[in-house]
Amino acid sequence: MSQTYRSSSTATSSQYTDSDTTYSDAGSTGTAYTQYTVADYDNSIGVFQNQNSVPGAFVLPCEFVGYASCSVAFNYNETDAWVEHIVADHLQDKLPGKAVCWFCDTYLFDAKASQINDRRMNFHFRMEHIREHILDGMTANDIRPDFYMLEHLNRHNLIPKAVYDYAKQYQEINLPPEHTMHIYRPDFEPPERQRERERSNRVTNDQRKEDRQRKKNRDRKTDKKR
Asked: Looking at the domain assignment, is residue 10 inside a domain?
């Protein structure tokens, strides 16, 4: 079964609330939706197929393609409409405080970060990051559950309990190595960060050695003068 979504839409301003915090009014105007036909998802996380896209075009799938079999998709240049669809139609203007990428573990998008401190901005940064992965060739087939988002959806009753329980099982499935290469323990330190830390430690240690050596030299000179 396939579904063709709306021909156009304009996103309106809205308030974003979560728990006891209210977030300021943020409006955005979406572009005209591109019409696509998309196959339904199987078992909440299934196969996404854009049947009418132009060859080589990049398609932005809905985040709820796995949670609710949502078949709405957007062209790569319809970022605002894509984000507004997820925020308004599925999240009901309740934005998560924390979220991660669908495809990688590079960043934790935290709305409480001092340089952001805004849930709408934080969510948009996340979606822009995800869009870059899609432009690099990732598709809905590659989406992994965002467990921060999953807990948020369950807490606000935005998905059925059965879907929540199903998605939680993702971490318990023994997947091939190519599917788990980006899944790390909470205390995992990427090799490049480890090398940077080691270089920093070496510089610090070298500086301390130089300081000690200079102090010894000064002490020797002082002793000679005496």
From this structure: yes
191 inside domain: no
Yes or no: say if 6 and 62 are a contact pair by the CB < 8 Å rule: no
Domain housing 155: 2-180
Residue 225 lies in a domain: no
8-26 mean pLDDT? 33
Q: Is residue 37 domain-resident?
A: yes
Q: Is the pLDDT of residue 222 over 80?
A: no
In this structure, which long-range contacts are made by residues 160-169, counting pairs with CB atoms below 8 Å and at least 24 apart in sequence? 163/44, 163/67, 163/68, 166/43, 166/44, 167/44, 167/45, 167/66, 167/67
Instruction: Please count the structural domains in the chain.
Output: 1
Contacts of 135 (CB under 8 A, 6+ apart): 58, 76
**Per-residue confidence at 113, pLDDT binned at 50, 70, 90?**
confident
